[in-house]
């Protein structure tokens, strides 16, 4: 999993962006709410002016605001909201939405046929499948229940008996939203349980026996049988009856030697993980050993993506260019290296050993020895004293997490006494204030190793997979809440199907936000990448490549480009205003990669959801208030 | 009659023909006894582009006073429902104002004192009667105990205790109407708006509805109802406004409006044939014109209700009276309990002639 810069931010860094306030989520939220209020007032005034005339229209708008602040907000009663929420809940349930849970179970049952547990990383496959299925199913459901309910109530006129009671528009809106969120919650819980069981059982397998076992000096080294296209090797130390197999496809088994000399092999362990990483700062050095911001690019890494974290400053053109973290490569056999500096390496956090994970890519500039992988080395170094351990050599295993550990003691040849001492890592490699460096080098010359900041991390702790899955479901819940809020908002002034389409458009724009940002970036910086929608259409028809100049002459060219610019800039503004759903969906990637979903990420999504719900609530209120229910 | 001022009694002298300009000077009486007041109320329905579609209501000025039953009368499309929706704030006036309890009709707070029975009972089909009433009770922020008690009272009042746990989708039209009425009364409102209260009810239901309306009035509640069942309006309303194509055509006390000034009606029993002849002579002697002298006919409603009551008292086959026709149809109603769910039988035919006064006072003083 490749984390982006904003993934590393703490909650307050995200909210306020110290040093770059223009990028802060807080500013974005405030601007959005102020814009919504200003636009709302304008639209409200235009509508009321058309209805009552320019003077009276002004008073109508003023009255609506006075009503909200003086009577409707203070008069909003929790018990009425609960009553309306219960009604919405019952309505949805009686419409048999729980059928979706059944559908989900059926999908899981069928998925058993199609998901291949013999793949390289079955855990990732299974987890991302269940989370993606849940995500889209629940979002579609949220879209349907939220967009149709209120228009249907108005069409059936059941709303008459509600609005003629002392029910405020605030209560109708909140009641709906909460009722539907409750429906979604009730559905997510069984779906989550089913997912957990599905993943847990689906990955379970047993090796039935040992095909080879050799005893060397009391130490047993052997191989298990091949099940699901993999087998393990195992070692049982002398005098022990139990041993562990090696990690294959992210899991290992416990092998027990019985008294009669036969072996039993336990269930797979370690494939459902929730590692809690501790990231360091990364510094690259080029082949001459000079510090550089990044390593070598081996492709078009820097062309697209990663604008979302720049917030408003990107929209107004202050922040330019992408800020994507892509793998940066260090050249082998030179002074080039990547230097990771970790903070807070303490005895409390690492009482027994210092576990660390590698997730590194390799780039071959020539075929070399195809049998063996590209080799790298890791050097543990004290940044203050410069003391370092003997470099540890390793072979790169791409596209998986390579789990390693540093023992807390090392042997040191004391040159003065000529004796070998056992020294503690914390005394020599780690500084007083808990800093430690790891230097990553590539050993094969003219081959390259690629890392990002998230490619090498210490792993001080581990969370439970069940809890991580719950967090991933929490993220789905937040997305659902957001969509319900939008659906209810649109349904206060649009008919059911139109409200659904409008919500769906918002969702789609939210999902394609990064592509829109990309397109704008290309237009801004004159990079030929297909251009805006019209230019793309022309290219499609003319069968022109994306990277050539647009083959249209003169005025037509200018027209196409300027029309495209208008469209793209508008879409850019709209997409910036919408919730960044892909970011929320990508929490599934954490769970699938076996990394604990950062609490800061979840907190950000929660606050963003809350903000958008507030916005949707205000807009819904005014539309409902201004609407002639019986018209 | 050219005014709707508080002094109603003296407005009955003229019987202006329908179509005369009904509205003139406004009274200044805005005291607390005025519950609903519309001022120059107009409503134009527009289409999406703001083009005028229908002029549904034209400069309506009415006042509904505390403790009266006010009827809005008119053919379909005359603006009755529009008026009620404007009063409830379901629609916004194109011009003019509606004041309910001296508050603007769009204010939510007024709803605390209002009960509304819509044209058809627009209720949630998936709830049962008890849940429905409980839900509406919650909307008034009533406590659990209050709600329970009130739901019990109302179910008894509208006679639905037996069907309280059935979903509304299974209800007959009449039963839905009853639940609708019960929800309108859940908050013990001071003002009750009834949109076509008797549609969908059988004759017994209509009778009960009318009795209930009168009983509510006697409790001091104000009732505004709109209907095109003229008989119902005549039976219960204190005052009526007659609307036609959005215009107020007539407004006044029912008794005054229906009184035919130059016709005298005498009801007597036990008159011998000679006495009748004598009366004829007396009339002739005074130079008056005897229009008719007959045995009065009861209304169909009276007949029907009598039969049903009788049948309840003595179940079993009913002997068809000699005066009735030879069809034994009158047996049928005996089989059912009073809260019969069947859709209403045809309305009593008595109402159409009400306007010309020939039946005035036959049923009610």
From TrEMBL, chain A:
Entry keywords, A to Z: Membrane, Transmembrane, Transmembrane helix
Parts forming coiled coils: none
Membrane-crossing segments per the record: 25-47, 97-115, 127-150, 178-199, 483-511, 607-624
Keyword set includes Transmembrane: yes
Superkingdom of origin organism: Bacteria
PANTHER family xref list: ABC TRANSPORTER PERMEASE, SLL1107 PROTEIN
Protein name in the entry: ABC-2 family transporter protein
UniProtKB/TrEMBL annotation, chain B:
Residues annotated as domain ABC transporter: 36-270
GO MF annotation: an example: hydrolase activity
Gene designation: yxlF_5
Keywords: ATP-binding, Hydrolase, Nucleotide-binding, Transport
Highest taxon, organism lineage: Bacteria
UniProt protein name: ABC transporter ATP-binding protein YxlF
EC number: 3.6.3.-
Region called Disordered, residue ranges: 1-24, 314-365
Taxonomic placement: Bacteria, Pseudomonadati, Planctomycetota, Planctomycetia, Pirellulales
Biased composition, class Acidic residues, residue ranges: 328-349
Positions with biased composition (Low complexity): 1-10
Pfam family, one: ABC_tran
PANTHER family: ABC TRANSPORTER ATP-BINDING PROTEIN ALBC-RELATED (PTHR42939:SF1)
Transmembrane spans: none
Keyword match Magnesium: no
């Amino acid at each position: 999993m490749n984390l982006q810069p904003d993934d590393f931010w703490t909650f307050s860094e995200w909210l306020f962006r110290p040093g770059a306030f223009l990028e802060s989520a807080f500013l974005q939220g405030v601007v959005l709410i102020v814009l919504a209020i200003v636009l709302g007032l304008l639209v409200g005034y235009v509508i009321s002016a058309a209805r009552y005339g320019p003077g009276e229209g002004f008073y109508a708008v003023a009255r609506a605001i006075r009503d909200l602040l003086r009577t409707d907000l203070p008069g909003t009663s929790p018990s009425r909201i609960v009553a309306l929420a219960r009604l919405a809940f019952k309505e949805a349930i009686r419409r048999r939405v729980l059928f979706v849970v059944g559908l989900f179970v059926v999908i899981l049952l069928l998925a058993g046929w199609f998901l291949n547990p013999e793949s390289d990383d079955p855990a990732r496959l299974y987890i991302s499948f269940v989370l993606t299925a849940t995500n889209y199913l629940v979002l579609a459901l949220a879209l349907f229940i939220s967009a149709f309910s209120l228009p249907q109530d108005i069409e059936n006129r059941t709303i008459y008996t509600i609005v003629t009671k002392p029910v405020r528009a605030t209560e109708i809106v909140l009641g709906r939203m909460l009722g539907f969120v409750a429906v979604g919650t009730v559905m997510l819980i069984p779906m989550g349980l089913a997912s957990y069981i599905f993943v847990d059982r689906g990955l379970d397998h047993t090796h039935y026996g040992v095909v080879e076992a050799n005893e060397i000096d009391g130490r047993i080294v052997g191989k298990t049988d091949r099940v699901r296209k993999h087998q393990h090797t195992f070692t049982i130390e002398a005098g022990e009856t139990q041993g562990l197999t090696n990690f294959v496809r992210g899991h290992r088994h416990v092998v027990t030697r019985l008294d009669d000399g036969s072996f039993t092999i336990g269930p797979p362990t370690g494939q459902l993980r929730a590692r809690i990483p501790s990231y360091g700062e990364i510094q690259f050095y080029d082949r001459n050993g000079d510090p550089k911001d990044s390593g070598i690019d081996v492709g078009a890494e820097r062309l697209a993506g990663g604008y979302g974290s720049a917030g408003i400053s990107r929209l107004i053109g202050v922040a330019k260019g992408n800020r994507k973290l892509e793998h940066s490569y260090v050249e082998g056999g030179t002074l080039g290296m990547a230097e990771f500096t970790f903070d807070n390496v303490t005895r409390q956090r690492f009482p027994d050993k210092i576990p660390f994970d590698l997730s590194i890519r390799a780039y071959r500039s020539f075929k070399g020895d195809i049998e063996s992988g590209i080799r790298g080395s890791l050097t543990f170094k004290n940044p203050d004293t410069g003391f370092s351990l003997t470099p540890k050599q390793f072979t790169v295993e791409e596209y998986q997490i390579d789990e390693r550990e540093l023992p807390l003691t090392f042997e040191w040849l004391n040159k003065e006494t000529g004796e070998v001492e056992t020294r503690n890592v914390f005394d020599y490699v780690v500084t007083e204030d808990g800093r430690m460096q790891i230097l990553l080098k590539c050993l094969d010359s003219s081959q390259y190793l690629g890392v990002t900041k998230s490619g090498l991390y210490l792993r001080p702790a581990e969370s439970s997979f069940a809890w991580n899955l719950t967090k991933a479901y929490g993220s789905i819940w937040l997305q659902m809440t957001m969509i319900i809020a939008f659906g209810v908002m649109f349904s206060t002034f649009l008919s059911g199907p139109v409200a659904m389409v409008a919500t769906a458009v918002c969702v789609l724009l939210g999902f394609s936000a990064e592509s829109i940002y990309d397109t704008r970036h290309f237009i801004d910086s004159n990079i030929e990448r297909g251009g805006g929608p019209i230019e793309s259409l022309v290219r499609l028809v003319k069968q022109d490549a994306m990277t050539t100049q647009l083959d249209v002459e003169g005025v037509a060219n200018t027209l196409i480009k300027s029309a495209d610019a208008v469209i793209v800039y508008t879409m850019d503004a709209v997409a910036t205003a919408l919730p960044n759903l892909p970011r929320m969906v990508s929490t599934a990637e954490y769970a699938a990669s076996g990394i604990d979903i950062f609490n800061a990420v979840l907190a950000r999504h929660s606050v963003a959801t809350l903000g958008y719900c507030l916005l949707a609530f205000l807009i819904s209120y005014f539309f409902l208030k201004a609407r002639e229910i019986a018209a | 009659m050219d005014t709707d001022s508080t002094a109603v009694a003296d407005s009955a002298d003229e019987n202006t023909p329908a179509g005369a300009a009904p509205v003139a000077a406004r009274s200044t009486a805005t005291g607390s006894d005025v519950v609903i007041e519309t001022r120059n109320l107009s409503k134009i329905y527009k289409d999406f582009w703001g083009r005028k579609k229908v002029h549904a209501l034209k400069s309506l000025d009415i006042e509904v006073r505390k403790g009266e039953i006010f009827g809005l009368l008119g053919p379909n499309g005359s603006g009755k429902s529009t008026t009620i929706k404007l009063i409830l704030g379901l629609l916004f006036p194109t011009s003019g104002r509606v004041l309910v309890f001296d508050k603007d009709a769009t204010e939510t707070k007024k709803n605390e004192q209002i009960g509304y029975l819509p044209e058809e009972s627009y209720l949630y089909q998936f709830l049962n009667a008890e849940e429905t009433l409980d839900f509406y009770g919650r909307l008034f922020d009533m406590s659990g105990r209050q709600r329970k008690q009130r739901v019990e009272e109302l179910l008894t009042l509208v006679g639905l205790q037996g069907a309280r746990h059935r979903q509304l989708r299974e209800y007959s039209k009449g039963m839905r109407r009853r639940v609708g009425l019960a929800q309108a009364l859940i908050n013990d409102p001071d003002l009750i708006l009834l949109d076509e209260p008797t549609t969908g009810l059988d004759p017994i239901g209509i009778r009960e509805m009318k009795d209930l309306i009168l009983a509510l009035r006697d409790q001091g509640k104000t009732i505004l109802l709109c209907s095109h069942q003229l008989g119902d309006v005549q039976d219960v309303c204190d005052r009526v406004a007659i609307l036609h194509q959005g215009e107020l055509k007539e407004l006044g006390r029912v008794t005054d409006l229906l009184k035919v000034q130059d016709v005298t009606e005498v009801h007597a029993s036990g008159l011998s044939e000679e006495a009748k002849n004598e009366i004829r002579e007396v009339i002739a002697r005074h130079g008056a014109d005897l229009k008719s002298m007959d045995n009065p006919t009861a209304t169909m409603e009276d007949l029907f209700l009598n039969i049903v009551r009788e049948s309840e008292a003595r179940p079993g086959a009913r002997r068809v009276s000699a005066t009735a026709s030879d069809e034994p149809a009158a047996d049928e109603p005996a089989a059912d309990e009073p809260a019969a769910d069947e859709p209403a039988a045809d309305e009593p035919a008595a109402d159409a002639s009400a306007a010309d006064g020939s039946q005035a006072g036959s049923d009610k003083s």
